[in-house]
Amino acid sequence: MGESGGRSGTKVAYREIEGQSAGYWVAVIACGLLAAAGVVTALYMRAEGHHVTGMNNQIVWGLPHVLAVFLIVAASGALNVASIASVFGRPLYKPLARLSGLLAVALLIGGLWNLVLDLGRPGHLLAAVLYPNFRSIFAWNIYLYTGFLVIVGFYLWFMMERRLNPHTHAVGVLAFLWRLVLTTGTGSIFGFLAARSAYDSAVLAPLFILTSFAFGLAIFALVLLGGFKVLGRPVGARLLARLKSLLAVFVAAVLYFVAVYHLTNLYMAGHRGVESFTLVTGGIFPVLFWGGQIFIGGVVPLVLLLRPAPRADVGALARTLTAASAAVVAGGLAQIYVIIIGGQSYPLQMFPGLIVKSSFYDGVVHNYVPHWPETVLALSGIAIAALIVLVAVRLLPFLPESLEDHVVSVHGERTATAETAGGQSVAGT
Amino acid sequence: MRIRAGLWAVLAVAVALSGVWAAHRGRVALPVVARAPGHCVLNTAQMRRTHMMLLRTVREDIVRRDARDTRFRLTHCVACHVQRTASGRFIPVNAPGQFCASCHAYVGVRLDCFDCHAAVPHHAGAGQAAGSALVAAFRMPRALRASKGAGPGGGP
Amino acid sequence: MSDRSQTTGSLDEEGGGQEPDALRRKLLKLAGAAVALTLAPGVTVLARDLVVKGSGGHKTPVRYGLLIDANACKSGCESCVRACQDYNGLSHDPGPDNAQWIRKVTIVNPKTGFSRSFPVMCQHCENAACVDVCPTGASFRRPDGIVLVDKHRCIGCRYCLMACPYKARSFVARNVSDQKPWAPRGKGTAEGCTMCVERVEAGKPPACVAACNRAGHKAMVFGNLHDPKSAIALRLSEVATTTIRADLGLGPSVHYRGI
Q1: Is the per-residue pLDDT at C6 higher than 50?
Q2: Spatial separation of the C-alpha atoms in residues A313 and A402, rounded to whole Å
Q3: pLDDT tens-place string over residues A369-404
Q4: Which CATH number does the domain A22-395 belong to among 2.70.40.10, 3.20.20.60, 1.20.1630.10, 1.10.3720.10?
Q5: Across the interface, do C152 and B63 touch by the CB < 8 Å criterion?
Q6: How far apart are CA A48 and CA A77, in angstroms?
Q7: Contact: C201, B117; criterion CB under 8 Å
């Protein structure tokens, strides 16, 4: 049974989910089928060539890459909750650390799934190991991503194996530093491309780190609240209030960096063309930027999260956090779409200031319409991430039985009042 | 427990079906290797064992180190070993039953050279003359043949 | 199923036993170490390049290049483009996913009305962006300055298409079956102008240059940039030329006059 732990003497018991309900199996089978559909689609794209997708020589990277970058960025962010607990020594977040590590692994695998299955010649992937070119961010990322999986794997093991618990802090520090470098690497995929006006900025790397904090926490909150609601396991107001203010800080920080990125670009005369494209004239992209990224992904969550609310009302807190997190995820997808697709849609500036025409779409704004193969492939990355989480929480004790206020603690101080947000019901539905 | 039993059942059915499928397809036919005119750059036994290593080494030399003065070139393999239809048209060497494809099918090794490389020589309409000229041009020099102890000696 | 009803509890993790300030100091030290470890190899690679490439003089005896005279290039003439397509077995149809190793580009200055038409192909850069970003080294630069794709190593990630400022790289999105023996190209790999490497090795100029001369425009000169007595080097020393996006510092081998 659950054993006591933590220096405050509070009890945190973890337990696998029953996983016998019809709902669980429907979810597992749906995710499995979607993942399988992704593999079949990838084989189809491999057999026919990429002309069956909406991607071409103008829009080089499409929907699979949008989802891949989103998932990879969110993966490193999802680990933050564990880092706050074991690196920065905040016991409040400790009961969440296991789920945080699991989500990080699952999201990263989902993102890599998309990237690898979209390759033109995945069979040549071994060449990246045999002849790595270390001037390429991609070559670095191969090591950063696999290293991340290994380190977080050890981290989870150390958290779950009682005899190894004393070393958790060290592995946690390593994992935290690694994820910072990893997100820098992901941001640099775009930041180092001097050729494309939209990407030519070192601010992209720190921007990606901040967005990872927000995306990761939002997905974490959605999984936690959704899972605990389905399982009937209780969550206390104290934890919800903390997650709520943390998410607000992250969202505000992202908005700040987005503002810095666009203001520096606007200040540089040479970048005004691409800025007016993203912000005003670029068709769908200004809509996604202002409506998706800024309004839904920034303003709405901030208003929701910063609105004064009764701190004891668990239901209201959970609803607010869920709505704000969903808005952050939706806005985040819009943000990555604007960066990746919008950045390619704006024509290459071969002759700045001149009108350029050719048979190869020079000087033309490129349209991108995702076709079904890459859409299925992109969604299958999400499916595989969800499948990993669903299977893992059934096999191993990732989820705490309860996150009520008397279970979680803050700096050893135990809460006097414990709101009851539901009985200590047996897991499973 | 029910799940485990179910998984075993699925596995058993899959194994049984694969057996039926294999029996239905029968054995893969022995490769049909048509003799090419002239002499190969190495003897048959050496080519069988090492052609992939040669091609792999040589492709590094040719593509990356611009050392094109090598005899072991895929285009030369194709030039000699390609077959023609009755009407004189080249048949791609990776078409079923052809020189490359028949052996690779027999040993079950995927052949992907011709995803990128031409599977027929360039001289599409030309007659035998072009073929034999290519053979003569790429014939292995006497010295090399002697050192490798290959070929039935003496060029045409 | 009954085994599931046994709960598996376990001890919460240890750690966090230090004072926050001490923790923070330790963390900063670790962060410094990690950053140094991460950046050191990259800095070394870049520093080596700075030393080697900054030393001046020609490292290699041969660097093939082109000089394109936009004043001599005839608007509407597509001889070079056709010759490239025919020699390399490319489609004549310019679809969104068809390769165009060479294309005619028309520029117009909206303020002055100045207009020129000229071919653009792979610029065979000295510090090629495609070579830098390629994770496997499939994009590489030969000692004679020709930038190629080694399709045996290409994984089809298309990072080079993203990185090239000249749109000189294409991705093969369909099955290809009618390749020329000297120009292998296949589905799922990146490709671009090869400067007709087999012709160049046989002592002939690239197909586009030969076609331009045949058409009588003589707008393209091919030769060894590192040989001071070559026609191209002499011409470059006489007339004012530039390269496209010279500001990026990529060092293209293709020079332009009159743009």
Answers
A1: no
A2: 17
A3: 999 999 999 999 999 999 999 999 999 999 998 888
A4: 1.20.1630.10
A5: yes
A6: 36
A7: no
